[in-house]
Write a structure and sequence with these properties.
By secondary structure, the protein is α/β, with parallel strands linked by helices. Helices cover about 35% and strands about 25% of the residues. It has a seven-stranded parallel β-sheet, sandwiched between helices. Strands 1-3-2 form a three-stranded antiparallel β-sheet. A hairpin with a 3-residue loop joins strand 10 and strand 11.
Length: about 250
C-alpha cells in the first residue's frame, strides 16, 4: 500500500472512531511500528490529527467549543434531532461521550427538567447551559484517548445509578457481533452503563455499521433503540431488525 493510501486509511479510521491505536494500525495495514509512527507524525504536521501516546485522536474530539472539524457533522445533527423525543420530563439519563452525544445535548428543549449523569466532562459543560437540568459528572481517571472518566471509581458510581435511559455512541456495530470496542477499560465502562439503565439508545452514523472490533460490549437484543441518520425503513438497516430493538 502506498503512503497516500495508508494516510487515507488512517484518516478514515480516525473519522469513524475518533481515535486510533498504533498497534491496531500495524496489524490492519501489515506494516512496521516505525512506518505507522512516521505516518502519524506526518499527518500531525499536516494538522489533520492530534498525536497521543500510543496513537492519535480526531481534531474534532479535543473540544466541544469548535465543531468545525467534526466528521459527518450533518449526519450527527440528524441523529441528535431524531433522538430528542426519547427524552421526557423528569427522566434520569446516563450518557457516554463523543461528538454525536454532544450534538444531541446542544439540541435539548430549553426548559427540560431532568437529571443527567455523564462520564464526559465535555457533555457536562454542554448540559450546564440548561437552568433546569441537574448535571452529575461521574468521577474517576480521565482517558486522554476517549476523553471520558473510567476506572474502578467510575464503575462503582455507575453501578449505583438507576437510569431511565442510557445514551451511548459506539465504535462499531454489527448485526451478529452487536456493539464492540477496542479499549478494555472503556468496554467494561459501557457494560456497566448498560446494566445501570432501563433502556439504551445507541447513536451511530451508518458508516460504523457492519463493523466489528475485538471486544464485545453487548448483543443487539440488549439495546432498546438504534438511531442513525438513515430513514428507519432503509434496507441497510434490515439486518438490525431484531426483537425489542426499535430502529429510528
Amino acid at each position: 500500500m502506498l503512503k497516500k493510501e495508508r494516510h487515507e486509511f488512517i484518516m478514515r479510521q480516525i473519522h469513524l472512531h475518533n481515535r486510533v491505536l498504533s498497534a491496531d494500525l500495524v496489524q490492519l495495514l501489515a506494516v512496521s511500528e516505525d512506518t505507522i509512527r512516521r505516518d502519524l507524525q506526518e499527518l500531525f504536521e499536516a494538522n489533520k490529527l492530534h498525536k497521543v501516546h500510543g496513537g492519535a485522536l480526531s481534531k474534532s474530539y479535543q473540544t466541544t467549543y469548535d465543531d468545525s472539524d467534526v466528521y459527518a457533522r450533518d449526519a450527527k445533527k440528524i441523529i441528535a434531532r431524531k433522538a430528542i423525543p426519547l427524552i421526557r420530563e423528569g427522566m434520569v439519563i446516563l450518557t457516554g461521550g463523543g461528538t454525536t452525544i454532544i450534538e444531541m445535548m446542544k439540541q435539548l428543549p430549553e426548559n427540560l427538567h431532568a437529571t443527567f449523569f455523564t462520564i464526559s466532562p465535555f457533555v457536562a459543560i454542554e448540559l450546564a447551559k440548561y437552568v433546569n437540568i441537574e448535571v452529575v459528572l461521574v468521577g474517576g481517571l480521565f482517558s486522554q484517548n476517549s476523553q471520558v472518566t473510567y476506572g474502578s471509581s467510575a464503575i462503582n458510581q455507575l453501578s449505583e445509578i438507576r437510569a431511565d435511559l442510557c445514551l451511548m455512541g459506539t465504535n462499531a456495530i454489527h448485526p451478529e457481533d452487536g456493539l464492540t470496542d477496542v479499549d478494555w477499560e472503556i468496554n467494561h465502562l459501557k457494560k456497566t452503563m448498560l446494566k445501570s439503565s432501563a433502556k439504551t439508545a445507541i447513536l451511530c452514523i451508518s458508516e460504523k455499521m457492519n463493523i466489528s472490533s475485538r471486544l464485545k460490549v453487548a448483543s443487539l437484543d440488549t439495546i432498546s433503540y438504534l438511531v442513525t441518520e438513515l430513514s428507519s425503513t432503509d434496507e441497510k438497516l434490515d439486518k438490525y431488525r431484531v426483537k425489542n430493538l426499535q430502529i429510528m
